[in-house]
UniProtKB/TrEMBL annotation, chains A, B:
It comes from Pontibacter ruber. Keywords: DNA-binding, Transcription, Transcription regulation. This is LacI family DNA-binding transcriptional regulator. Residues 6-60 form the HTH lacI-type domain. One of its GO terms (molecular function) is DNA binding.
Length: 355, 355
DNA sequence: CAAAAAAATGTGTTCGAACACGCAAATATT
DNA sequence: AATATTTGCGTGTTCGAACACATTTTTTTG
């Protein structure tokens, strides 16, 4: 029952060879007689040998350069969290030679993404962490990285294919379903629900479309035909109309609105509106624990926020690359983070949590 | 900007002493001239020296014995999860000399706890992880461990004082508040809510009382006087009455029941009842992702389960002890785990999650 | 003042894995 | 047959920290 640690030396003794030979076998460095190779392999398996990562990394002092391509946290505070997760991971991993260089782009400007990713292209990194929020612009780069075999990790937005090392983030569709459930649980009467995309180019943002689809699908499988109505609304401030004006006319046209589901982190804009118009009977569900949203969560204007664990996304993203580059561990190619339901009453534990 | 790793050797060179001297200074081993000690300390601080944990643990091959005192998973399947968290941590930490011995007691028999803890007492462990679910019986042991300076970690149930190395688990009171919120969000009409303690000796289980208190307090601060009524119910199968019979009479006496909050992992017992009686308008909220509950969560008889991350509790508990014993790191004495809200739609991500 | 004791400091080995290097035996080349 | 080349395998060093042990310096004591 005593758990015994198996070392290369132990294998070597049993196989009557030197540690150097075992090392060659385990790392497929060749230069070993076939019969010896088989004997050593067999013994290693029998003893259930697992390399000591510490000793391994201790001797390895290569430096690995990772590029992180993310939106500017100053423009959209949501992106502060992934950045701090990345920084935290870098801090922990610098001992193992991990160095991260940030390439910041503007989350409202697809061309700036292309520029940032282009720079990374030129510089030859050992790994790339990218939040590919612009679908069209991302494809070309994902394709290039795939063919040049640079390991890359996608987070926040899932663009399948192109064989990323891994994807880290949420299942957007399922988070829409979850929002549907929460809306439904809070409102059993006949009602109209609004899916609101705020300040987004939805045609180029697949994950928002998935969220909407999940929400719609929830209601088509719950409650009889015609009982619940879901409408979609694309809200953008224009020269002609502010968002408040657009919401005014929405509420005029649709009198049965009992809930609004905001597909990105901008639920606070709707909350501001509801508070100003003193509308209290409308349920409001959004995303992300950013400062502006938390204020309305605490005043209970926003009922629920779905948390994407953005800090964790950055953190695990860098770790995924390090596992590949430094520790030679394999990771699951898709890491779906939990869909955390946040309300005023459990908020504090998600804010305090380190990762 | 290039992050430089500072080694003992670097400090030694700058201070014009040998690495041995630096080592003595850093570990307060004495036998160093005062002026040299100050010089070295100063340089270590300036360079922001942080010991390389890997190298440290590599050389240290002491074995640390930890006792885990937990209820029998076979009797109450909830306890399977902490056990597997403990096992996982042991697996990861065995390289650093961590060995865990389990002491299992019966979660329905306080005397068995005393026996298990008594055995640990005799055997002299380097650290103890304990789920002190019996308040009275735990006090004596906590006190003994405190005075004999054995580091111990409490999890699941928080009994303050006695200076544990740390407590890991939830804030029971706040989880009751959260249950209140969820109940309230799902039911805006006049209603009666039941707080049900099932098969528990509540007088000896402080955390259940805290949950009830949180739930009650939520409703006293929301909604006007008399709109919501909260009643407490202690349900235990006896020779005279089954739990179903007790629920029958409860529903006869109280006609306005719109929700039931079960304070432990036995919500499935109420769910079975509701399903048999075909009661669908009653909201049901409980705790813990055990098999029996999940079935009713999926059939939407249980609306929400609050997850205590039991696997994480065991895992982090062992890690807390290892941080202290092996890595000499300091931990926060209270680690409140998030109050995860689980519903059918986001369940899968909490089941799959490793920790 | 010299010898002994105490204090201060330096040196060398260890942990487990990786890898460069070196040497011997087997095989190939002339 | 002599020499070169390949193949197979062992040895020794390295990583950073810990610690035992050795050595030097200072202080105390008879």
């Amino acid at each position: 029952m005593t758990k015994q640690i198996v070392r290369i030396k132990d294998i070597a003794e049993r196989a009557n060879v030197s540690t150097g030979t075992v090392d060659r076998v385990l790392h497929n460095r060749g230069r070993v007689a076939e019969d010896v190779r088989q004997r050593v392999t067999k013994i290693a398996e029998e003893l259930n040998y697992e390399p000591n990562l510490l000793a391994r990394t201790l001797v390895n002092n290569k430096v690995y350069h990772i590029a992180a391509i993310i939106p500017d946290p100053k423009a959209d505070s949501y992106w502060q969290a992934p950045k701090s997760g990345i920084d935290k991971a870098e801090e922990e991993l610098k001992r193992y030679g991990i160095r991260v260089t940030h390439f910041i782009y503007d989350s409202l400007d697809a061309a700036s993404f292309t520029r940032a990713a282009g720079k990374v292209e030129e510089l030859a990194f050992d790994g790339i962490l990218v939040a590919p929020i612009f679908y069209r612009e991302s494809l070309a780069f994902l394709n290039k990285w795939k063919s040049s075999k640079v390991p890359f990790v996608q987070f926040n937005t899932h663009i399948p294919a192109y064989e990323p090392l891994m994807y880290i983030g949420q299942d957007s569709y399922q988070s829409g379903v979850l929002a549907g459930k929460l809306m439904h649980y809070g409102c059993r009467e006949k009602a109209t629900f609004v899916v609101a995309h705020i300040e987004e180019d939805i045609q180029n943002s697949t994950h928002l479309i998935h969220k909407e689809q999940g929400f719609v699908d929830y209601f088509s499988s719950h409650g009889q035909e015609g009982f619940y109505t879901v409408i979609q609304k694309d809200l953008k401030a224009t020269a002609q109309h502010t968002i408040a004006q657009q919401l005014d006319s929405l509420f005029e046209e649709e009198t049965q609105i009992k809930g609004i589901f905001v597909t990105n982190s901008k639920a606070n804009i709707v909350a501001t509106y509801l508070q100003k118009r003193q509308i209290t009977h409308v349920r409001l569900i959004g995303y992300d624990l950013i400062e502006k949203n938390l204020h309305f969560l605490n005043s209970e204007t926003i009922d629920f926020l779905i948390n994407q664990n953005p800090k964790g996304q950055g953190y695990w993203g860098i770790y995924g690359l390090a596992d590949h580059l430094v520790f030679k561990k394999k990771n699951n190619p898709i890491k779906y983070l939990p869909l955390d339901i946040i309300t005023k009453e459990n908020l504090q534990y998600y804010i305090e949590a380190d990762i």
